[in-house]
Amino acid sequence: MAAAVNQVHGFKPLACPPRYHPQSVVHLDYKMLDFSQSVVTQSLEHAFNFACIHKSSSTPCLSYSSKPEDDLSTNPRIEIIAGHSLPQVHALVVEVAIAMAAGVNIEPAASGLGGAYFLHARNGHTIAVAKPIDEEPLALNNPKGFGGRMLGQPGMKSSIRIGETGARESAAYLLDHGGFSGVPPTALVKLSHFNFNLIKSDSDSNPSYKIASLQRFVNHDSDAGDLGPSSFSATSVHHIGILDVRLMNLDRHAGNLLVRQENESYGLGKAELVPIDHGFCLPECLDNPYFEWQHWPQASLPFSEAEVDYISSLDPFKDAELLRTEVPSIRESSIRVLVICTIFLKQATAYGLCLVDIGEMMTRKFIGGKEHWSSLESLCATAKASLNMGLSDDSASSDQEADEMLVVPRVFKKRHAKGVLMRSLSSPTPYNPSSQSISFGDMDDEEWQSFLKIFQEFLPEAFEERESMGLSKQRLRTSCAF
């Protein structure tokens, strides 16, 4: 078998395609969306701003042409949009290109709320999972009956827009430096010549191409929901938790943690966890993350020396520039959330907090049946409100006014801001879903730098306050008996 792969990953079909041998479908909870060919140009250009992507042999300029003579409509083709700098992504794309040239078709995944498709090799082995951006939950061409909205509108998470989860999947792999957390190779690609789901069309055939996230399929035994946490190693839990904190993952549940068992030793803490489904990370504003591992005993163990070294080596500003360069469709507001969460992780670790401490400070609390801001949100609200301070030392600002700042930012002295921060951590502010969430996209560069300085100045007192409130419980420091 042979396939011709050109510089932009175009390829020619074989003269005699082999027979297709489908594999069984495993449980997946993928979230994606779909749209008609008549709105491809407007929706993609608006929601992804692909005009920012530079032309190169590995990242071709997207064509919005739907003319019959367009090569996309006549030959199978795959092109990398985001992730082109990673060798593992290129290897995956070549495998998929060879499979497409061999004439294999896609296999829809039955489970999940969005459209997901398995791509198989000639021998029937599953190579990858493709999730078209226009088949997410709530999107126009969602195949599971959860569609109707256009790209760019609020999705299942209000801080993440419909059609933008695919870019986040690629970003998660890009930010998993050295494969530390085990995210499978993932890219944002343009796929043609496949019969994806299409609700509406002006022609008898499907559109010539779709944008999709493409992730290497991981052979696994089950997912974390099928086992108790005693089966997982502390190292595996910590590595995934570190990634989730950095990216503020809003949807880390047991179903998107695949389990690969070593030597059939269930229950001995040797199972390897593989994190998938990162479409709900990097929100545009501070949101309420969900960390399944927060309820596991491994999260109460201190970080190992190697884990501390890895966290200390993280550079949030280099990561921010990496996203701007490699995944330009990620909005600046989301990139700034990454910076905030990475700084928070680094300083919390240096202070001696463990993973569960960090997760609890990022998660909203329910008190008296009401949702309250997380410690991180209160901290950022106070720091953001402090930006406008320019009052003289003899100016006054009442404590009551400072308290109100947490809902409607007000001008007040820095010394009052710190006092309000401490009170807000001990008496969390109720979360008002009708009010604007804490976002950093409205700041210019000078305001952003000033905010970061204030934010970092407040962190030590926030960590001290957590301990004085008795929220940092005594942790096991040497071993963990599950």
From TrEMBL:
Superkingdom of origin organism: Eukaryota
Enzyme class at the top of the EC tree: transferase
InterPro entries in the record: P4KG1-8, PI3/4_kinase_cat_dom
Residue ranges occupied by any PI3K/PI4K catalytic domain in the UniProt entry: 103-396
Keywords: ATP-binding, Kinase, Nucleotide-binding, Transferase
Record GO terms (molecular function): 1-phosphatidylinositol 4-kinase activity; ATP binding
Transmembrane segments: none
EC number(s) given by UniProt: 2.7.1.67
Family designation: Belongs to the PI3/PI4-kinase family. Type II PI4K subfamily.
This protein's name: 1-phosphatidylinositol 4-kinase
